[in-house]
Amino acid sequence: MKVTSLGHAGLKVETNNATVLIDPWLSPEGTFLGSWFQYPSNQHLITPSLLQPTAIALSHEHLDHVDPWFLAQLPPDTPVIIPCYPSPILKKKIASTGLKNIIEIPQWQPVQLAEGISVFFVTEDSPMNHDAAVVIVGDGKTLLNLNDARLSLAQLCSIRTKVGGVIDVLTLQGAGASWYPVCYEYSQERKQELSDRKRMAKFSYLERAIASVKPVTAIPFAGPPCFLDPELAWANSEIENGIFPDQQQVVNWLHHQGVNNTMILLPGDVFDVMQQSKQPDPFWADFSFSDRDSYIKNYSQQKATHIAAFKARYPEPTESLWKPFREYFQGLLAMNSYFNHKIDMRVGFDITGAGGGKWAVDFRPGYEGVYNEIGECSYGYRFASRWLPALLHGLPWEDFFLSLRFVAWRDPDIYNDHLLGLLKFACPQSLQAVEDYENSMDSQEQITIHSEGQTYKIQRYCPHAGVDLQEVGEILPGGILRCLSHHYEFDLETGKCLNGKCKLLDSTRI
Ligand code: FES
Questions:
Q1: pLDDT band at 61; cut points 50, 70, 90
Q2: Would you list the DSSP string of 170-233?
Q3: Which of 447, 483, 499, 501 has most ligand 1 atoms within 8 Å of CB, for mutation?
Q4: What's the mean pLDDT in 15-36?
Q5: What does pTM read for this prediction?
Q6: Nearest CA to ligand 1 atom 1
Q7: Domains of the chain (ranges, CATH numbers)
Q8: What is the 3-state secondary structure (H, E, C) of 76-112?
Q9: Cys-Cys with 183: which of 13, 179, 237, 317 at CB 3.0–4.6 Å?
Q10: Of the residues 152, 469, 486, which should be mutated to test ligand 1's pocket, given the most ligand atoms within 8 Å of the CB?
């Protein structure tokens, strides 16, 4: 087995009988509305030979994993293997490129791609998060590609067991795909504090995942992106100190924790898993992560015409967007009352520029509706009107948020998972899957924990998405329990979630 980096989260896996591409993202226009670009660039890998794989495996629907530009160049009958998700978004994105042979497989079910090579997926437990690990077994070796999936430690151990106890290569995301806290209205100091926290949370997940999987070689990848539009240049500072650490920084941090079986692959570098050796791509002979500023400056100049051409495709509207906005959100409000009840607040939209306005969507019982005035909101978004028509015509809100082309605010300062869930899925069957999952979570089983001289009986499974707190519960000073799955924090005395809109944790001091 040979594993070649295609840049970002893209991998080419070659065995004796097959070549599989996983999550190739090579679009010269970057993605997320001309916002994200591959860092470092992978454009030298766009060659005809890359366009004849045995199959493609795609982990989830984010556009840095499903690249319509690249997929449209493949032969239409190329098999595309994807996990089953409640939402049809991933399938729709692939079908829009002309690819016809889409094979959806339930998680844990291997599919043979050719003699001696198979693939299976393992998805996150909650249908609120469409992320999946991709496992390839070929030539007697195993690649576990975690990409953006935040699997529980129990799931990771089960994968190891399923493949016979040895994971040869573990690839895992070193820099999260997120807009929090960078797009929120915080003071600079508070933003830095939250960015640091998010960076450390990601690092500690990597350390725990590596400890659970015990791979022969661990490769951090799938980020960071870089931002080449001058309007977004500020986001590149997140590489140095914030939520988008580069691979070298991740590896350095892991070394500090005593994790030394790591490797960095730049686009085009090949790791021969059988020989345990790396063949560096000579293209990078002069590259260093420490020259980031000058690299990004040059890269930005090279892409200036692509970015300008892209933005020209999103002109300012010439008519008011109020009516289509109202119709769109009336449709969302009618989609799932469980979600409305969970969101339970007024959300403001400050759409700037021609055709825009200050509008609100109220999800509170008794006030439900779409309003032509913003009023007092608990959550708000501000962005340019040029992006709104695309959103109202099906651009997924999560793809838009990942573009960082907006500002958000919220009061109280707590995360509302169901608001993002409604916006990103906007589809009855996906919302129903989340509702069913959350209503089926077991809150009966209890565990005992100790904090600051007190003993508490708490529910074993996190009220957010049902992960086992025995495995991922961390006790913080001040009688607080943090669930390391999505970092919700609970006051052990009251059970109240302190940083997210979430059910009470069942907790009793004994
Ligand atoms: S499962 Fe999401 S915070 Fe616990």
A1: very high
A2: EEEESS----TTTTB---HHHHHHHHHHHHHHHHHHHHHHHHHH--SEEEEES--EEE-SGGGG
A3: 483
A4: 97
A5: 0.91
A6: 465
A7: 2-304 (3.60.15.10), 322-436 (3.30.1050.10), 441-509 (2.102.10.10)
A8: CCCCEEEECCCCCHHHHHHHCCCCCCEEEECCCCCEE
A9: 179
A10: 486
Q: What is the mean pLDDT of residues 451-472?
A: 89
Residue 442 CA to ligand 1 center (angstroms) comes to 14
Q: Is the pLDDT of residue 442 over 80?
A: no
What is the percentage of the chain residues whose pLDDT exceeds 90?
89
Q: Which two tokens stand for residue 84?
A: 């089953």
Alpha carbon distances (Å) from 233 to 63, 82, 238, 305: 20, 34, 10, 16
Using pLDDT thresholds of 50, 70 and 90, give the confidence band for residue 73. Answer: very high
Bridge partners of 5, per DSSP, are: 11
Q: Please tell me the residue having the least CA distance from ligand 1 atom 3.
A: 486
Query: How many angstroms is it from 415 CA to the middle of ligand 1?
Result: 12
User: So what's the pLDDT on residue 60?
Assistant: 97
Task: For ligand 1, atom 2, name the residue with the nearest CA.
Answer: 486
d(CA 302, CA 304): 6
CA of 483 to the centre of ligand 1 (A): 6
How far apart are the CA of 487 and the centre of ligand 1, in A? Answer: 6
User: In 3D, which of 250, 164, 242, 265 has the Cα closest to residue 210?
Assistant: 250
Per cent of the chain over pLDDT 70 is 100
Name which of 195-199, 393-397, 463-467 the model is least confident about.
Answer: 463-467
Pocket test for ligand 1, best of 416, 460, 464, 469 (most atoms within 8 A of CB): 464
Which residue is associated with the tokens 């190739």?
24
Query: What ligand 1 atom has the least distance to the C-alpha of 472?
Result: 4
Instruction: Give the three-state DSSP class for 145.
Output: strand
Binding pocket residue ranges, ligand 1, CB within 6 Å = 462, 464-465, 467, 483, 485-486, 488
Q: CA–CA separation, 496 vs 503, rounded Å?
A: 8
Which ranges constitute the DSSP H helices of 261-387? 292-312, 322-333, 337-343
Q: What is the pLDDT of residue 336?
A: 97
Query: What distance in Å separates the CA atoms of residue 162 and residue 177, rounded to the nearest whole number?
Result: 29
Q: How many angstroms separate the alpha carbon of residue 270 from the centre of ligand 1?
A: 36
Q: What whole-number distance in Å separates Cα of residue 499 and Cα of residue 413?
A: 7
Average pLDDT (70-95) is 96
333 three-state secondary structure: helix
Full DSSP string of 454-502: EEEEEESB-TTT--BHHHHEEEETTTEEEETTT--EEETTT--BSSB--
Residue that the structure tokens 């960071």 belong to: 224
The pLDDT of residue 482 is 92
